[in-house]
């Protein structure tokens, strides 16, 4: 089945990420959900036939073309659920996990076919935030990766899927966020700035700048005709001082 064909998607877990992923998929697909849910947001979609509530994982997965898991960040849970999904879902179904940091290669330990599972990690809330990180395990089949990339690149999609070349703790987005959080905590702890003013600095400078250009492109432009090499040359001594202190601090 092509990524452009109508999909039948099983969502495992309807917490914050799960509900937002449902909203994302509902822009063009029907949804199958494996657990009973309550609330007007779910009921309105059930009443129009676009979302079906199933009493068991087996019935939810039986005709799925995509199974996406948003369960607890618990390795034992994920290993157990994928073993069950593999036995219930069609062999052609694509298996995605929205984990924040548990690699697909670790989650698939109990699976027979290790070519099917990959991480599809959104930024919360995924129906609004454009980024979707696609992180395959070493055993993941390339065509499974390409299917996910094409699916989130369909015409009308506002999303920007990025394939991460190899597994690493925290993937990429979280690693960048954690590095910034670590420095932010240090600056507040050392009474360089208070938390409110630090947030103001980010929102009034780096936030809008990086939203438009990103890190490397911003510094490339900042260097003028000389590009990023010229930019780094101008700030070399300051950057070196900060980085050397970083090494000793951590």
Automatic annotation (TrEMBL):
The enzyme's E.C. designation: 1.1.1.45
Q: Which UniProt keywords apply?
A: Cytoplasm, NAD, Oxidoreductase, Phosphoprotein
**Domain 3-hydroxyacyl-CoA dehydrogenase C-terminal: from-to ranges:** 170-229
Q: Name one GO molecular function term.
A: NAD+ binding
**Record-annotated 3-hydroxyacyl-CoA dehydrogenase NAD binding domain positions:** 47-164
Q: Where in the cell is it found?
A: Cytoplasm
One GO BP: fatty acid metabolic process
Q: Cellular component terms, GO, for this chain's entry?
A: cytoplasm
Q: Which Pfam families match?
A: 3HCDH, 3HCDH_N
Is Iron-sulfur a UniProt keyword of this protein?
no
Q: Kind of enzyme, top EC level?
A: oxidoreductase
Gene3D superfamilies per UniProt: N-(1-d-carboxylethyl)-l-norvaline Dehydrogenase, domain 2, NAD(P)-binding Rossmann-like Domain
Where does the source fall among the domains of life? Eukaryota
Q: Does the keyword Iron apply?
A: no
Give the record's subunit note. Answer: Homodimer.
Question: Could you say which protein family the record assigns here?
Answer: Belongs to the 3-hydroxyacyl-CoA dehydrogenase family.
| Name of this chain's protein | L-gulonate 3-dehydrogenase
Organism, by scientific name, is: Aspergillus ochraceoroseus
At the highest ranks, the source species' classification is:
Eukaryota, Fungi, Dikarya, Ascomycota, Pezizomycotina
């Amino acid at each position: 089945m092509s990524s452009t064909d109508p999909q039948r998607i099983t969502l495992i877990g309807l917490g914050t990420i799960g509900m937002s992923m449902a909203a994302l998929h509902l822009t063009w697909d029907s949804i199958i959900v494996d657990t009973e849910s309550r609330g007007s947001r779910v009921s309105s979609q059930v009443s129009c036939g676009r979302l079906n509530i199933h009493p068991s994982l087996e019935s939810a997965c039986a005709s799925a073309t995509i199974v996406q898991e948003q369960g607890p960040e618990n390795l034992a849970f994920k290993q157990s659920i994928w073993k069950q999904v593999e036995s219930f879902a069609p062999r052609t179904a694509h298996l995605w996990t929205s984990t924040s940091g548990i690699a697909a290669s670790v989650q698939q330990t109990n699976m027979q076919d290790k070519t099917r599972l990959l991480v599809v990690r959104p930024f919360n809330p995924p129906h609004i935030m454009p980024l979707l990180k696609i992180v395959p395990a070493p055993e993941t089949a390339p065509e499974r990766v390409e299917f996910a990339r094409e699916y989130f690149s369909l015409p009308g999609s506002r999303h920007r899927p990025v394939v991460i070349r190899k597994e690493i703790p925290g993937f990429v987005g979280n690693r960048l966020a954690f590095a910034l959080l670590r420095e932010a905590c240090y600056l507040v702890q050392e009474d360089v700035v208070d938390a409110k003013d630090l947030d103001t600095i980010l929102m009034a400078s780096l936030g809008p700048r990086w939203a438009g250009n990103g890190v490397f492109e911003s510094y490339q432009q900042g260097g003028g005709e000389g590009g990023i090499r010229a930019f780094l040359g101008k700030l070399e001594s300051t950057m070196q001082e900060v980085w050397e202190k970083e090494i000793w601090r951590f």
